[in-house]
Amino acid sequence: MASQAIKQFRTREITGFLKANPKTSGKAVKVHNPFLPRLNTETGRWAPAKYSRRRQADLIKKARESNMLHLIPPGPKLGVKELESAIQGHAPAAAAFVTDAVQTAAESLRRKDRWTASIEWEGEVKEKKVPGADIGNRLYAGKKRMFKGHKWQRTMKKTKHRRWLLLRSMKGRISRFKSYRLIRVDVPPETSKSSCSSKDHDEGCQTPLLEMQIPIVFLFFTTANYTPNIHFV
Prior knowledge:
Residues 4-178 form the Large ribosomal subunit protein mL59 domain. This protein is 34% helix and 12% strand. The chain has helices at residues 2-20, 53-65, 80-90, 96-99, 151-154, 156-168, 170-178, 198-203, and strands at residues 29-32, 38-39, 46-47, 119-122, 180-187, 214-221. It has a two-stranded parallel ribbon.
């Protein structure tokens, strides 16, 4: 049950401190918050929280179900403001749980009610300021646009502009393409032997130009007063 899990949590965390101070009737007993990291004064190192974020969220969920949220310490998963509102809504006397008020009811320290005794949790909860948390809109608060959208949706404006430019100059490009045609003629090499001897080849003799297969490009223009770009194939 949810209430049984909260009772086990409180009993495990605070019963030892209450047994060590059985006559405490003034201020609430100070217990380190198991939801927060702890600084070791001897080594100067920080020890991680006793309960992981997942276990904290599970305990908070069970505390909400059993109406025992005022018995859970604040932490990363439960802010101080939310906890204060839960305490004030549960019972006015339980406000000492966070506001350090004095509770002198010694009956709460009896053996059967030790797990519900007033506890002052040590440790500062550093809450991260999330835009839109106060209005219940954390996901899209402070953003210029609501949804990211697909990539084709984000680039649609540039795509339409480029398409408009291509359509605007389409007739000119078609006319330039049709204004000339390209014919390739390959010149076959001569069948005669090379005039260079083997010795000349060793000395770097070059083959005559006519012995190489050279493509010749003829351009025929159908439009006057037009200077095309010559492309060799």
